[in-house]
Amino acid sequence: MFEERKDRRRANQAFDRGEGVTRYRMRQKAISFGNDYWIDNEAGDHLYKVNGKVLRARRTYKIEDRYGQNVATVQSRPLRIKDSMAIEDADGRRVAVVKKALVSPLRDRWVIKPENGEELTVQGNIVDHEYAIERDGYKIAEVSKRWFRLRDTYGLDIGPTADPTTVLAAAVAIDAMTHDD
């Protein structure tokens, strides 16, 4: 038990130092019809476009690569007691569901339930884009605005054990459920 906790602490400190981490920047487009984002790499190159579809019964976000190919879809799930969104891969298969798990006065908790794999927990200040995504206490991704002064811009650090597409899509889903426009 003590060794496991020590190992987890060491792994999380390595993550915080940026070891094996891939950095992305999500930036909402200044002028757009819908809720559109660019997802850039550290060099500032556009890797993905998040296209928020408007005038639909369900909130829908298409994530496309730089060539316009659909990579993932994030879509609200109507008629649910708790707000939730499904993440589908390019072939339309559900890969995960993002749900709000618990509301407390200090921090929000969310859950990402992959179809295949272990449940991920999301904790932190969701509204201010300052939160971590963990699997069994190990940090696999972190979302933060601390490096950006621009409005509607935040960073994502994704560790080597996480699927980047699912984490990016989950960040889009959490943003959409938290900041209803």
From TrEMBL:
Supply the InterPro entries for this chain: LOR (IPR007612), LOR_sf (IPR038595), Tubby-like_C (IPR025659)
Any Pfam family hit: LOR
Q: Which residues cross the membrane?
A: none
Which domain of life does this protein belong to? Bacteria
What the record says about family reads: Belongs to the LOR family.
User: What name appears for this protein in its UniProt entry?
Assistant: LURP-one-related/scramblase family protein
